[in-house]
Amino acid sequence: MSMSRSKASAEESVPVNLDDFERIADKRLTKAVHGYYSSGANDEVSLRENRVAFERIRLRPRFLIDVDNIQLQTSILGYNVSMPLIVSPTAMQKMAHPDGETGVAIACKEMGIPMTLSTLATTSVTDVSANCGGEGLRFFQLYTFRDRGITYDLVKRAEAAGFKALVLTVDTPTLGRRNADIRNQFSLPTGLSLANFEAPKAKSTLGSEGTNLSDAREAVRIAAKQGMADHSDSRSALSAYTTKFFDASLTWDSIKWLKSITNLPIVVKGVMTAEDAILAKEQGVAAVWVSNHGARQLDGVDATIDVLEEVVDALRGTSIEVYLDGGIRRGTDILKALALGARAVAFGRPALWGLTYNGKEGVSQVLQMMKDELSLAMKLSGATNVSSVPRDLIRMPYDAPYKSKL
Ligand SMILES: Cc1cc2nc3c(=O)[nH]c(=O)nc-3n(C[C@H](O)[C@H](O)[C@H](O)COP(=O)(O)O)c2cc1C
Ligand SMILES: CCCCC(=O)C(=O)O
Q: Which residues bind FMN (predicted)?
């Protein structure tokens, strides 16, 4: 691993929480990259809400419970994990540090938790797996392209590289409006590429008749190589890129097609309502990932933690797992989500801050900090097992005032 940037400089004190990592990262990143990583959509109402909603939830600790040995381990999609945390897919991680996606993947592998690789990664599925020695649990986040041959190709390469699930992001038919990216005319810095669109080394054997695959892939590849340099619609280059290539005609029914080309479990990321949770269930998905995309798509939606319970209720009695991301910054946040029925939580930006801070090592520090904080929160609240955190460990703002049931 390259370690081109050092730890905190003298004037930066050692980070003791994720906010510290964020502050340090903010100072080190270029204006454009910082703007891209940190932004929410529009007025960032939902971005603030993702945090504030966690702060509104109160804990109801129980005491004189033996918390000497608490259980942090659980399983995700049948795989044992050391704690209920997943790293969310975030695009273009080499902008943070040369370790990029490989750094995140190795940190996750060492911690024993899943990493989700973005379709728009700056390291390919094949290279990430190879750099991890084929070890570790990785999911592939899928964006679908107008040309289904491209999507097919991505899925097959993720399968071949040993990725264990497809995380289909449903909240991005096109890109949300992010002021900083427009102001900064954001595009991928020179020298980096969207590596999953580099021409495959070997001739691929595709079964996607009827699509002019090589032309389409070539177009995506060229656009990626040029740093998505098309600003023609006067928005960010990323926005122009998605408008041009992403399949905005995708429907719930398209999951049938996905299932026809792969046996990998499908996780639907971006669900915010009970209605969509039920449609996902009807398509036979393995998991539903409650997310508002880090508040980067539609501004004005609820905080994810505020809709978690309706999704959990809609899926009760099924074996579909529910995950949540959006604003997870503390061990107590994880505990609150578990109490509301999430099997696991995820975060995106904190991994980028860790990466910016000190590459793979920085990500490891961030993950360890979350593990320690979760463990502490459980001990102080009398929760002994991440798989059975009781609902009454918390009070939601919408809960009725306490009435004695004793
Ligand atoms: C810089 C950045 C890039 C992202 N890229 C992707 C992506 O490529 N695919 C995706 O499904 N979600 C993407 N997301 C959303 C994250 O997966 C996740 O939902 C979000 O970051 C969670 O919120 P948090 O950052 O508050 O933890 C991105 C988020 C950020 C901040
Ligand atoms: C087209 C999506 C780009 C990556 C992404 O999901 C994000 O910036 O939020």
A: 89-91, 118, 141, 169, 269, 291, 325-329, 348-349
